[in-house]
Each structure stands twice: as structure tokens, then as C-alpha cells.
Amino acid sequence: MPKGRRDVLLRVANVNPASVTTHTDRVLYSAIGVFILLYFVYATLGGAAFIDAGANYEHPWYRWLVGPLVAAGVVAYDRAVVGRVAISYEQVDSTDPKHLLKKPTIGLYAGRLGLALLFAVLITEPLMLARYQGEIDARLNEVHNQQLSRIDRDGVVGTWTARLAQLDRETAGDDAAVRALNDRAAQKREDARTLYQQAVDDSAGDGVTRAAGCPAGGSCDQLVKRSRGLDDEATALDVRAGRLLDTQRAAREARADEKSALTRQIGEQREANETAVEADSGFGARTAAMWHLVTSDFWGVGVFYLGITLLLVALDCAAVGLKFASRGNGYERNEARLARRREHEATLIHEREIQDARVYGAAMARVVSEGIETASHDEDVVRDSAERASAVLRTSVVVPPEIRELTAHPGRHHRPFAADLLGPRARHQRPTAAETE
After folding, report:
1. Where on the tree of life does the source sit, at the highest rank (predicted)?
2. Residue range 367-396: mean pLDDT, rounded
3. Domain presence at residue 53
4. How many whole angstroms from its chain centre is CA 102?
5. Cβ atoms of 190 and 231 closer than 8 Å
């Protein structure tokens, strides 16, 4: 493979090509770069499948925008893990190889492996759900039918259905009462027709008495009277049935309205229940259905599910796994040497800068102190020179006697001028006896 192409794979793996000096390390990190490229495609498909599963498999177009973003995030994490070298910055001036790298800790490996497995599960599970979509749809259909039956039986639909049955029973009772009267009336009319036919037969001489005609008070006449009486009773029963039906009309109408309202509510509620139940087919429901298929038919579905899942998880963790297996190789030692050398140089430069700052500060303090000392010495020289000039001036000037007497007079109402005319010494000198005289 050309060197430029190998360097591209190393850059994909977030590895410094200048530090890869052995053939083994170059093959190792090139393989990691290939796994990362393959994983980008795989993570793109997994992210798109996750969005599709979250949208109830309506195949939204934006899943192909979210998928590459998820893949980029996962690949960035893998590149960060692969490119990170645990360099030890303790004793940076030491050349012992055991001081180059930090000692591995359980938390470091567990954290990296846990994050890798988390990404692997989030990416792998949607692909597995898409792989067994047909079986999952059949299981969800069965589950949804069970849920609808349970809702119809135990929910508000069951209560409304029981109320409809009660209203039907009440209507059937009213119908039975009216029908009983109508049946009795019909039976009486049928009996009346039978009696009348007997009367006709008897009047023709075919009756029991064998006497022709229908004289008053005879058997024929009695049969006719009984037939007419039954007709009257039948008519009375029809009237009673009609009156009963009139009294039931208000209750029947109320029951009919209630049944119509309940039927409409039941239909609307069933549609709402069906919509809600069918909506329960997202990622969680499909995962539960997949788990049911795995546990109920392990040798038919579970073995292949677990096998494919482990294979995809191995692909997810391949880059990080190779990184763990290659800890302490030549590449990491080279990177550690370069980093420790730069750190040691930076430390020496920092120490030199601090030392220079200290020397500069001491020099500045010395200059300032010497300047202050020189300034104070100059001030003393100026003061001594002024005092000497004043003394010379006082000794060189001749004061008349009148002025001396005036300045020496201790009068109460006159301000002494000795201090102004004779200088500062006159303030502390008392006049002599000769001067007073």
C-alpha cells in the first residue's frame, strides 16, 4: 500500500504517523482506521434504523441526516480513545522506560469499555429489530388483539356493552308483555273460529246432537254465543295490548336514544382504543416483542439473534479492543518520549524565567534602594550647605547698636525682632547684662 494511503488510515485512527516507526504498529493502526471507516457506515445505518423505529417505521427522510451525525459522534469517541496515550509526567527528567506511561487502572478500562458497549447496544439493537421486523409485527398484532379484548372486557366499553344488554332486556320484557296479550287474543280468536265451525257443523246435522238447524238455547246457539264471546275477549286483549304499548312508548324512545348514544360512544371509544393500541408499536414495544421471540423460541430465533448481536458488538468494539491490546507498544512509547521531552523543556524554560525574574527583581530593588540612599544623601548635603551659608551670612553682616537694643527690649507690647534680624540662633539666646543696660 502506498505510504500516503497508509498515512490517511493513520490519520483516520487519530494517530501521529511520525511516531509510527515499526511495521507492526503501522499494520495495527491501519487496521484500526479501516475498522473506524467500516463502523462509520455501520453506525450510519444503525442511527437511521433507530430514527425509523422511533417513527413507527414510517421511513422518514430525515433519518439519513441523523444517522451520519450519530455515526460521527461515535467515530469521534473511538478516535479519541484510540489517539489517547496515557503519558506519565512524573519524573520527566528520568530516562527509565517504566516512567513513560501511566499504570493502567480498572476504572479507565471499565469506563472506556462501558461507553463502547453502550454505543454498540444503541446502534446494534435497531438493526436487529429491522432484521426481524416481520416476526415482530406478527407478535405485536397478537399483543394488540389481546389488549383490545381486555379493554373491551374490563374498560368503559365493557360497561357500556353491559348497559346495552340491560336495555335490550328491558325492551325484550316490554315486547314480551305486549306479545303475550297479542298471543292470548290470537288464541281466543282461533278458539272462536273453532267453536263457530262446530256450530255450523251442528246446524247442518253433523254435530253431536245430529239435529239440523240452530234453535235458541240449543247446542248450536251456545256454540255461537261462546264463539262471539271469545271474539269479544280477543278484541279486549288487543285493546289492552295497544294501551300497554302506548304506556311503553316513552320508555322505549328513551331506551332507543340511550342505545343509539351508547352505540356511537362504543364505536368512537373502540376507534380510540385501536389507535392507541396500534400506536404502542415503537422501539420499546418492539424490543419487548423481540425479547419474547428470543425466550419463547430460543433455538429458532434466539440463537441467531444472540449470534448476530455479538458479532455486531464485536465490530463495534474492534477499534477500542485493538487499542487496549496494543497498550505500551512502540508508538505509545515514542509519543510519551516526545511529550515528556516537551514537558521537560517547558519546565526548564519556566524555571529559567522564574530565576531571571527573581534576579531582575533583586536588581531593581537594589537600584531603587541606592537611588533612595543617594537622594537622602543629597538632601543632607543641601541642608548642611544652607546652614553653612546662613552662618557665614550672619557673621558677615554688622547690626547697628540701636537695632540690637530694639531687638533685645523685652517689652510686653512689642514683638521681639531678634529672630527676624539675627537669625535662628537669637531665638534661643538670652540678652547679656551689657546689652540690657
Report:
1. Bacteria
2. 72
3. yes
4. 36
5. no
154-205, pLDDT tens digit by residue? 778 888 888 888 888 888 888 888 888 888 888 888 888 887 777 777 677 6
Query: For residue 287, is it within any domain?
Result: no
In this structure, the answer to whether residues 318 and 336 fall within a common structural domain is yes
* Cα→Cα distances 234→183, 198, 227, 294, Å: 9, 19, 11, 74
User: Interhelix angle for 23-54 vs 330-396, to 10°?
Assistant: 90
Q: What is the pTM of this model?
A: 0.53
The residue type of 191 is D
**208 and 185, same structural domain?**
yes
Contact of 26 with 10, CB cutoff 8 Å: yes
Nearest to 41 by CA among 66, 67, 63, 61: 67
The residue type of 406 is: L
On whether the CB atoms of residues 183 and 172 are closer than 8 A, the answer is no
- Residue 288 domain-assigned (yes or no): no
Query: Which run of H or of E encompasses 11?
Result: helix 3-12
Find the DSSP H helices in 280-329.
283-296, 303-316, 318-325
What DSSP line would sit under 393-432, residue for residue? HHHHSPPPHHHHHHHH---SSS---HHHHH-GGGGTPPPP
What is the extent of the structural domain holding 44?
Answer: 3-152+297-347
DSSP designation for 326: T
Domain count, the chain: 3
Sorted by sequence, the CB contacts under 8 Å of residue 317 that are 6+ apart come out as 113, 116, 117, 120
Same domain, 229 and 315: no
Are residue 326 and residue 430 in the same domain, yes or no? no
Which of 270, 193, 182, 275 has its CA nearest to residue 231? 193
Question: Which of 307, 325, 347 is the endpoint of a domain?
Answer: 347
The predicted structure's pLDDT at residue 292: 87
Grid coordinates standing for 295? 425466550
In this structure, are 104 and 165 located in the same domain?
no
The DSSP call for residue 298 is: I
Domain boundary among 331, 347, 363: 347
| Cβ atoms 113, 317 nearer than 8 A | yes
- Within 8 A by CB and 6+ apart from 9, the residues are 29, 30, 33, 34
Question: Is residue 200 located within the same domain as residue 336?
Answer: no
pLDDT tens-digit series, residues 118-141: 777 777 888 888 888 888 888 888
Within a domain: residue 290? no
In the block, cell 240449543 appears at: 218
**E-only strand ranges, 16-75:** none
Residue with cell 336495555: 167
